[in-house]
Amino acid sequence: QVQLVESGGGLVQAGESLRLSCAAPGIIFSINSMGWYRQAPGKQRELVASITRTGTTDYGDFVKGRFTISRDNGKNTVYLQMASLKPEDTAVYYCNANVGLDFWGRGTQVTVSS
Q: Is 46 helix (H, G, I), strand (E, B) or coil?
């Protein structure tokens, strides 16, 4: 069974930073892309950031330069460095890995207080 191991969520104040990590140790196939999505209560899940195996990145419009995604292909791990966090960034953040099929983590809560 493939598991994505997420870490790094928590409670911070507005303006602070957090770093999320997601490892995919059980995936032996080449991962096409890895990324982070988020879902706030009452809202749809949305893309935060993604990165392909070759390093091409994509960000949600709301990121506006505040977040940076990076990836260690050798470790099948993706990182999301989040800075200048806002209360509206509060959500459950889910890791995604695509190998032709999508695999999802269980989610990690990020709460930003004002």
A: strand
Whole-number percent of the chain with pLDDT over 90: 79
Of 27, 2, 7, nearest in space to 107 by CA:
7
Question: How far is the C-alpha of 15 from the C-alpha of 25, rounded, in Å?
Answer: 32
Asked if residue 100 has pLDDT above 80, the reply is: yes
Question: Could you give the CA distance from residue 53 to residue 97 in angstroms, rounded to a whole number?
Answer: 11
DSSP code of residue 104: E
Token pair 């988020």 in the structure block, residue? 38
**Distance from C-alpha of 69 to C-alpha of 51, rounded to nearest angstrom:** 7
pLDDT in tens, 66-85: 999 999 888 889 999 999 99
Q: How far apart are CA 78 and CA 50, in angstroms?
A: 9
Residue 77, SS3? strand
- The alpha carbon torsion through 37, 39, 40, 44 (nearest 10 deg) reads 120
